[in-house]
Amino acid sequence: MDLLYDYLDDIQGDIFSLDRKEMEKKYFEICKHTVNNDIAQKIQQVDLNNYTASLTQKFQQILQHSDIKDIKAIYFEYDIDNNWEGAFFLCPDYISLSETNDDWAADWMEVIDGPSLPPFSEIYDQYGGFGKDDEAGVTIYLIVRTILAFMASAQFVNTDVPVCIAYHDQDPIIRIKEDE
């Protein structure tokens, strides 16, 4: 179980130091070495174009929101145990990564439904988990590909507010973009 949390700690640094291709490759290799090449390729071959497009559309909807000036952070959460179902939380407060306090994400003004990702849910149900190293390898690669799709959609977002992502009950929350 600790292995998955070690990987999660690494992801935050990787977001700010690696490009998306390097990040994809790093976690593909972790999955390949902890489980096997076939499962890593199965995860890699899931087409995320529609998922990314749906995330982008939701971001655009948020930016047209009438209360956008009151939003201090945009937080996307997905539920690993519920069909990878996602939701955007528009938060009136934010605490920076350096403060190591993510309580701000529990206080939100509005929730906007996001997309689900059933293929990831199916792979997770079959091979993933938190307990064993091979499960952690699968789970972390699914998480990283979700984050990368989210990052691809967020690159089109012109906002000064922090943009964050996590699976339900994840601690710490991953910052894609900090406040400027």
Describe the structure.
This protein is an alpha+beta fold. 48% of the residues lie in helices and 15% in strands. The chain is built from six helices and five strands; from the N terminus they run ααααβββααββ. Strands 3-2-1-4-5 form a five-stranded mixed beta sheet. The longest helix has 22 residues, at 133-154. The radius of gyration is 16 Å and the shape is globular.
- List low-pLDDT spans: none
Count of alpha and pi helical runs = 6
Mean pLDDT: 91
Rg measurement, Å: 16 Å
Q: What characteristics describe this protein?
A:
single chain; 180 residues; alpha+beta; 5-stranded mixed β-sheet; 48% helix
Summarize the structure.
The protein is α+β, with helices and mostly antiparallel strands and 180 residues long. The chain has helices spanning 2-17, 20-34, 37-44, 49-63, 118-127, 133-154; strands at residues 73-79, 85-91, 110-113, 163-167, 174-177.
Task: Outline the secondary-structure elements.
Elements: H1 2-17, H2 20-34, H3 37-44, H4 49-63, E1 73-79, E2 85-91, E3 110-113, H5 118-127, H6 133-154, E4 163-167, E5 174-177
Helix pairs in contact: 1-6, 2-3, 2-6, 3-6, 4-6, 5-6
